[in-house]
Design goal:
- This protein has helices at residues 5-17, 34-41, 43-52, 54-59, 67-80, 86-103, 110-125, 139-146, 170-175, 182-194, 209-225, 232-247, 267-277, 283-295, 299-305, 315-322, and strands at 153-157, 163-167, 200-201, 204-205.
- It has 343 residues and is mainly alpha-helical.
Length: 343
Amino acid sequence: MPFPSIFKACLVAGSMLFLGGCQPPSEPQIQIEPTEANQKQSPANDFSLMCQNIEKNMSQINDQRTTFALEQVNQDLKVCLPLMEMAEQKHLMLRSTDMYQRFLTVDRTEFQQRAFEQYALEMAQHPTIQHAHFQQLTSRDQYLLKHKGQAYVELLDLGEQALHYRRSPDYLARIFAPYLPPAEQTFIISLAQQNMEPVLIEQRLQIDAAEIAARSLLWEDYLKTYPNSSYKRDAQYLLKQYTYFLFRGTKQSPVSEDYRDRYAVNTSHLETIIGLSSGQKSTLSTQARLFLEFLDMDPQQRQQALPADYRSRSEAEQILFYAQISPPSQKYDKDCFKDAICI
């Protein structure tokens, strides 16, 4: 005769729990561990505590920590930044720069420095071969090179004896920019895009004239759109610098040696400047028209067009003055060509 179902339940319960007697099955009672109960009851408290400790956790990242620890801090930042005011967000942005500088610091002997540069050179030329110099590197270099590409860590090559790790410009654009006001967000995203690849290597321009002009116009438009931006001073510097790159170039890649006429100007720069000169509302367009005017003048006309104190100066100084192009400050206290903000 088959057992009644309730009797079966008694046997199972008794064998599992070693309990005497039997009661009809009832609604199961789930016992929650105290820690689990606390987590489920107060997620806001957990977030609040995490965000209170975020700066402390950032300060503990140094050259002994792993990319995993760095990524954990970055994940916490994504949670906490939307809950903060802009002043606190920008404060943590500065702390994040310090955090990465500590993380990417490597102390090397002179021998280890040469080995690092040689290894990186070989890696760039032959990325798939075995590297004899790897074992000569510091343990920290070995670690960072193995984990390059993780946690926004990059290796930047700016030419001979200018090889170093950096935080990717994309870091601030992805971690911080989405939670900032439009002026700050636009600045960071724009500069991140511009600095993903080097602008200068050994003082030679790595971008063409059309790209230089596009960046000049972008910063000119940015200053018109966001005249009260907290990054106004940096945007003004970038506008001056890119304008100077367009009309003057650099010492290693000059636009012209003597500006005697249009034929003496680099062809791609000249074509870009001619294109800009047809614009109507841009300061850059006005500068382009004046630049071309000066190129088309003969020496006597130039002398008449310049004030007395400019008549004996170099052609480069004369044409920049006439075209109302101010050279950027040589003592600007920030580097605007490596990250998504000027450091």
